[in-house]
Amino acid sequence: MDALDRKILTELQLDGRLTITELAARVKLSVSPCHRRLRDLEREGAIRGYRAIVDPAAVGLDFEALVFATLRWEDPDTVTTFEQAVTTIPNVIQAQRLFGEPDYLLRVATADMAAFQQLYDQQLARLPGVQRLNSTLVMKSIFDSRPLPE
Asked: Which of 2, 97, 132, 149 could form a disulfide with 70 if both were Cys (CB 3.0 to 4.6 A apart)?
C-alpha cells in the first residue's frame, strides 16, 4: 500500500458516496487507474464495505453506555460462547475483546435509562460465562467513526 492508496482510503472515509470521477479528481489521478486501485483495495480487504453513519438520536437511541464484562474461565469454550451470544443483541453496537481485565468492552445504545436497565437485567447479565459487569454512562460523544490516520 502506497501513499496514493492511503489517500484514496482517507477520501472514502470522509465521503463514502464519492463517484469514481470525484475520487479520482481528489487524489489527482485519472479515472481508470483510480478505479483499478479502488477495486484492488476492496479485493485485498483494506476496504471492508460501505455504509451510512446514522445519528442515534434520529432513530430514538439517545442513551449510550459502556459495559465492561469479566468472564469466568470455566473452559476454552467460554470465550466462543460469550462472543456468539453477544452478537445476537442488536443494542450492542460495538464489542471488543481486551487484554487483561476486564475481558470485554461493549458499547450499548438504547432509548433511555429504563431501556438500558431492562437490556442489562434481561440480556447482558445473562450472557454465558459472565462473572461481573461494570457500566459507565456516556455523557457526550465528542466524535465517532473518525477516519483512520494516513
From this structure: 132
Grid cell, residue 101, equals 481485565
| Domain with 18 in it | 3-43
Give dist(CA 6, CA 4) in Å, integer: 5
User: 130-137 and 63-71 as β-strands: parallel, antiparallel, unpaired?
Assistant: antiparallel
User: What's the predicted TM-score (pTM) here?
Assistant: 0.84
DSSP assignment letter at 147: P
Angstrom CA distances, 104 to 16, 86, 101, stand at 30, 11, 8
The DSSP code for 94 is E
Output the tens digit of pLDDT for each of the chain's 150 residues.
899 999 999 999 999 999 999 999 999 999 999 999 999 999 999 999 998 888 999 999 999 999 999 999 877 799 999 999 999 999 999 999 999 899 999 999 999 999 999 999 999 999 999 999 999 999 998 988 778 887
The total domain count for the chain is: 2
Q: What is the CATH number for 105?
A: 3.30.70.920
